[in-house]
Amino acid sequence: MEESGNGRAYSDAPTKHQDGITDVKKDEANSQDGKHELHPASQYEDSQSHVHCISCLSKTSCRIVRSRAKVMNILIEKGRPQEVQSIFDSIIEGGHKPSLVTYTTLLAALTIQKRFDSIHSIISQVEENRMEPDSIFFNAVINAFSESGNMQEAMKCFWKMKKSGSKPTTSTFNTLIKGYGIAGEPEESQKLLELMSQDENVRPNLRTYNVLVRAWCNKKNTVKAWNVIYKMVASGLQPDVVTYNTVATSYAQNGEASQAEGIILEMQNSNVQPNERTCYIIVGGYCKEGKVKEALRFVYRMKDLGLQPNLIVFNSLIKGFVDSVDRDGVNEVLKLMEEFGVGPDVITFSTIMNAWSAAGFMDKCREIFDDMVKAGIQPDAHVYSILAKGYVQAGEPEKAEEILNAMIKTGFCPNVVVFTTVINGWCSAGMMEYSIKIFEKMCECGITPNLKTFETLIWGYGKARQPWKSEEMLQIMEEFNVRPKKTTHLAVAEAWNATGLNKEANRILSAMKNEEMACKTDREDEIPVGSLEKHHQKTGSIFPNQVQLPNLVISDQKGSGSATKRSWMVLRETDFSLESSWTATRSLSLSHSCTFGARSPIICQKQPHGQLGMYSQFAHSCPLGVFLN
User: pTM for this structure?
Assistant: First the structure.
C-alpha cells in the first residue's frame, strides 16, 4: 500500500469486478445456512440493535460482513464514498457485527468526504468492541487526523501505533509529513524526515520528498524546497516531473512566472520531460501577471519541447487577451488552435461572448452564440446567463426573458441569479407586472427567491412609485423564510420617501430600530430615527447596493476531454458611483415629485461609456468571422 493517506482501506484486497455490489444480495440469500442464521428477535428487547448472527457472535469470519466490506471498498474506488455509510449501517441493521475492516473502510470514506467529526466516534467503537487495531487501521486514523490538520492527535496515534507493536511504514511517515504541510508547519515535516533516518524499517522514497517539497512551497519558501530537492538527489533519488511542477506552481502563484519557466532547464538537465501540466502552470502564471504575450511566446516554445498545448492552455490565453482587449492576440490564438488541431469548446465561445456582452454589443454576442450552436457545441447555463445579463444591461428585458424561456425549454433550469437578473431588467423598465410574472414563474420552477430577489422587487416598486407594494414584500419574504436586512428596510423607507411621504419612511426606520433593540444587535450599526435627509447626509445613499447585479456562481465545466474551473468566468457586477447616486437621490428627495432614486439597476451613465471607450477598438476592428473555426 503506497499510502493510506489517500483514504483507501485495503484490508482484504477486494476483487475489482463490476457486479461486486450486487454480490451482497447473493450472500444474503445464502445466509440462511447454519452459522449465518440470525438469532430470533424474541430473545432481545430490541431486535434491531441486539440480534446478531452466530458467526459474528462466535468471532468467526462472517460472509455477509466480508461481502459488505468488499462493496464499501468498491464504492470508494468508484468515487462514491458518500454511499459507504449506508452499507455500513446495513451491517448493524441486519444484526451483524462490523469488522475492523469495515470500520477502517468507513473511516477512509468519511475522510475523503472531509467528515472529520466522526473520527473519534469510530475509534471509540473499535475500542468498545475490544478490537485489536492493525497497522492499516492506525494508518487510516493517522490519515484522517492529518487531513483535518489535527497533527497533535495524528502524532498521538503514531506513538500509540509504535507502542502496540505495529510498525509504521514509509507511507505512515508520508501521511504525517503531508499533514504537517496541510497544517502549515513544514518545519515539523522536516523533522519527520530526520526521524525516518533513525528508523531501520523505513526509508524515504520519492513521494516522501515530493510531499515535503510541497509543504515548503505551500509556505512560499522555494529556497527550502530546493534544499529538499538537493537532499533528495544526494540520497540517490532523482526528482520527477511532479517535483518540478510543484516548485513551478509556487513560482507562478507568487508572481514569478519567468522563474517557473526557468525550471524547464533544470528539468532538461535532469533528463525529466516537461508535461502538459508544466506548460499550463507557466502559461497560467504569465496570464495571472498580465503578461499574455509572454504566455503566447511560451506556447510557441512548446513546439520545440515536443509538447501539444491543450484546450485549457488556449482558453487561458484567449481569456488573457480578451481581458487586455487585444483583438490581434485573440485572432492569433484562434489560428494557433487551428494549427494544432484543437477545436473550441463552450468555454472558448463563452469567453468571447462575455467580452462582447461587457462591451454592450449584444448583436455580436448573439452571433457568437448562434455560431457555437451551428458548430454542434451545446450551450450551458453559464452561456445563457451571459446573454440574459447582457440584454438586461442593454435595456432589452424582453430579450432577456426570451433567453430565460429558451433555457427552460431546452432543459436548463435557470438559477435564482438568472431569474433575479431578468426581474431586474423589467424593474428598470418600470414594468412591474412583467417582473411579478417572472417572479411567479421562478416559484413555479421550484426556485426559491433570495434576499437579492426581494430587494430588487422592492426597488422596482419604489421606482414605480408604489411604496405600499414595496412594503408588502416584507410580508412575502416572511412566507419564504427570507430574513430582511437593514438594506431591505432602508429600501422600503426610501420608496416611501421618494413619493414625499417622509412620515411613512420614518415609521419604517423606527420599526427597524425597535427590532434591532429587541434583538440586542450591535448598537454601532443602528440607524438614528429622524429624517431621511439627515441620513442621506451621513451615508450618501440609503440603499447603495440594491442596484448591483449579483455575481453568478459558476460550477466546474468540462471541455473537450479536459476539465477546468471557470472561476475567471464569473460575471462582474456593474459598478456604480455612490456619490452620483447620492446626488440624484437627494435632489429627488427635495423635489418630492420625481421618480424614485432616478437610478437604474442596470443602466449607468458612467460605466457603459467607459466600457465603450475601452472596447471600441476591439469591437469595430474585429470581424465576427475571426472568432469562428
Answer: 0.64
Whether residue 1 is predicted with pLDDT greater than 90 in this model: the reply is no
What does the pLDDT look like over 452-462, one tens digit per residue?
999 999 999 98
Residue 563 is given by DSSP the state E
Cα separation values, 601 from 383, 388, 434, 442, 470, Å? 22, 15, 16, 20, 16
- Quickly count: other Cβ atoms within 10 Å of residue 504's Cβ: 17
Q: Give the integer Cα–Cα distance in Å for 541 and 584.
A: 10
- Whether 336 shows a pLDDT value over 80: the answer reads yes
H or E stretch at 539? helix 532-539
CA distance 453 to 493: 18
Q: How many helices (H) and strands (E) does the chain have?
A: 32, 2
The H or E element containing residue 557 is strand 557-558
Q: Does residue 606 register a pLDDT over 70?
A: no
The β-bridge partners of 563 are: 558
- The dihedral built from the CA positions of residue 384, 388, 393 and 394, taken in this order, carries a sign that is positive
Return the DSSP state at 558: E
Q: What is the sign, positive or negative, of the torsion defined by CA atoms of 595, 597, 599, 601?
A: negative
Question: Nearest Cα to 466, choosing from 432, 490, 436?
Answer: 432
Whole-angstrom distance, CA of residue 133 vs CA of residue 117:
20
Cβ neighbours, 10 Å, residue 3: 21
CA-nearest of 484, 424, 425, 420 to 447 is 420
**Average pLDDT value for the chain:** 77
Q: Enumerate residues 6+ apart whose C-beta is below 8 A from 150.
A: 116
DSSP lists the bridge partners of residue 122 as: none
In sequence order, which residues have a C-beta less than 8 Å from that of residue 295 and are 6 or more positions away? 257, 282, 283, 286, 287, 316, 317, 320
50 contacts: CB under 8 Å, gap ≥ 6: 44
Type of residue found at 11:
S
Q: 51: which 3 cell numbers?
A: 440480534
Residue 347 has which C-alpha cell? 468555454
Give the pLDDT confidence score for residue 497 in this predicted structure: 83
d(CA 9, CA 523): 54
Nearest to 252 by CA among 232, 222, 227, 223: 222
Do 309 and 335 contact (CB within 8 A), yes or no?
no
Integer CA distances (angstroms), 566 to 101, 255, 354, 504, in order: 40, 20, 13, 46
Grid coordinates representing 233 are: 538527489
The pLDDT value recorded for residue 485 is: 87
The two most distant CA atoms of the chain are separated, in Å, by 93
Three-state SS annotation for 384-441:
HHHHHHHHHHCCCHHHHHHHHHHHHHCCCCCCHHHHHHHHHHHHHCCCHHHHHHHHHH
529-548 b/e (C-beta count within 10 Å ≥ 16 → b): eeebeebbeeebbbbbebbe
Name the DSSP class of 38. Answer: B
Distance CA 555, CA 104 (A): 32
Least confident range of 55-64, 192-201, 205-214, 296-305: 55-64
End-to-end CA distance of the chain: 48
Residue type at 328 in one-letter notation = D
Cell readout for 184 is 502549515
Nearest alpha carbon to residue 446 among 395, 480, 402, 396 = 480
CA-to-CA distance for 68 and 81, rounded, in angstroms? 14
Residue 144: its H or E element: helix 135-148
